Amino acid sequence: MKHFPVVRRFLAGGAAALTVLVAGACEDAPEFGVGLQGRGTILLQAFYDYDGQQGASGADAAAPGLRFEVLLPGSNTAVASAVTNQSGLAELALIPTGSYALPVDPDYLADTLQLAW
After folding, report:
1. Beta-carbon contacts of residue 69 (< 8 Å; ≥ 6 apart)
2. Residue 113 near residue 9, CB atoms below 8 Å
3. Distance, CA of 78 to CA of 58 (rounded, Å)
4. What is the pLDDT of residue 71?
5. Which residues pair with 57 in a beta bridge?
6. C-alpha to C-alpha distance for 100 and 42, rounded to whole angstroms
7. Measured between alpha carbons, how far is 26 from 88 in angstroms, rounded to an integer?
8. What are residue 114's DSSP bridge partners?
9. Would you say the pTM of this structure is higher than 0.70?
């Protein structure tokens, strides 16, 4: 499973940050290697990071109802889309192996972006 950077943006007033954790897995293929074949899954967890620990904890709140799309590079063509559930979780499944963009809608976020690795 490959873990991607955590995207964080502070909400107005700096009270909390919306955090999106992204993990990807390639099905029917080795975890490491070149020329992976098959289809993959991207798992998302979106939450308001009230304690600033960059990971979900009991102090944080889920962010339900956020729509995410996996796009072909350089285009607005969606390969898959999902909406976070009441727990802030979403799964984008059966994505052909390749390179894609996973943009975060700026309407979900405030004006200060911070990336956590």
Report:
1. 78, 80, 81, 102, 103
2. yes
3. 33
4. 87
5. none
6. 11
7. 22
8. 8
9. no
